[in-house]
Amino acid sequence: MELESPLNPGSTIGIIGGGQLGRMLAMAARQMDYRTIVLDPDSNCPAGQVADEVIRSEYSDIKASSELAALADVVTYEFENVDADSVSSAEKHKPVRPSSSVLRTTQNRFHEKKALLEAGIPVANFRKVDSLRDLEDAASVLGYPMVLKTATQGYDGKGQSIINGEHDLGASYDRLNARNVELIVEQFVSFKAEVSTICARTADGMTATFDPSENIHRNHILDTSIVPARIEEAVTDKARIIATDIAEKLDVIGLIAVEMFVTKDNDILVNELAPRPHNSGHYTMDGCDTSQFEQLVRVLAGMPITLPKLHSPTVMVNLLGEIWEDTGGNPDWQRALEMPGVNLHLYGKSAA
């Protein structure tokens, strides 16, 4: 379903999911005078604290998603682990950006890798795993080490197991197979940097990419993003081109965040996709003239997008729950904000 014309300020954006990304999207929408309605099981979710209205229900509630679509002029989702059938239901009533087709592709690592491979996008070698025998056969082709992953419901390193040799095969397979989801195994990539590039694409095919961020993870969770990424200019350009290529070939309308490995030979292999704003893109809120959230609001409303410009080199540090634990619930925000150029953004979560 397409927008008949651009949505004027005062129109309503429906957001499936009420986490921090939905919160920041709602705040960007409010800045441009768009209303937001959030669908989430928790009425006090981070996005619900700033949205105009909250529909409290499970993501799988098709009746609730249809209600959201009836009240909104356009619908999006703030993370990909929402119910695809529910999103498809909303799509019958109002435009959903990105589409439910893009969502279904990116919800499953095997489907995602297959789609990227068919589109000519470089990825690590991979195999689908339906049995221990499949995993053993994959090892003979991919070699060690390799990474066994759940095809769905995996994030922040969850649902993954590194297999260093034949002795790891059985235990790794049993542990992940117990989750009763599809499995995929990938060749381990020895990389010198992890980067992500966010591309916005409008309904008429206009694209704009943000500067790639260099991402440093701790315990598989994003810890720090550095922009500009400390990679060669030619690699930066290649990352932008790949992100744009993916947005076009998957027919994304909205945002697509592309996580990539940069190898020691300066080749790029795409690791994962996220059809939404991305935590590594938080730097755009203060580091760029247009944030990833405003860019998405513009796409949702059918408004023009522009190529974002970086104000200055920027570092984003992800604050995790341990900061509150280590300080008895009272981090020293004053000390942080004494530093020139520091901006503080909190998620509004009651627990982390």
TrEMBL record:
Region ranges (Disordered): 86-105
Kindly tell me the pathway this chain contributes to: Purine metabolism
Looking at the record, the residues that make up the ATP-grasp domain are 113-301
This entry carries the following GO cellular component terms, namely: cytosol
Q: Which SUPFAM superfamilies match?
A: Glutathione synthetase ATP-binding domain-like, PreATP-grasp domain, Rudiment single hybrid motif
Offer an example of a GO molecular function term for this protein. Answer: metal ion binding
Keyword list (alphabetical) reads: ATP-binding, Ligase, Nucleotide-binding, Purine biosynthesis
Q: Which GO terms describe its biological process?
A: 'de novo' IMP biosynthetic process
By its UniProt entry, which InterPro entries does this protein fall under? ATP-grasp, ATP-grasp_carboxylate-amine, ATP_grasp_subdomain_1, PreATP-grasp_dom_sf, PurK, PurK_C, PurT/PurK_preATP-grasp, Rudment_hybrid_motif
* Cited Pfam families: ATP-grasp, PurK_C, RS_preATP-grasp-like
HAMAP family cross-referenced by the UniProt entry: PurK (MF_01928)
The record's PANTHER family line, in alphabetical order, gives: PHOSPHORIBOSYLAMINOIMIDAZOLE CARBOXYLASE, PURINE BIOSYNTHESIS PROTEIN 6/7, PUR6/7
Q: What is the recorded name of this protein?
A: ATP-grasp domain-containing protein
**Source organism per UniProt:** marine metagenome
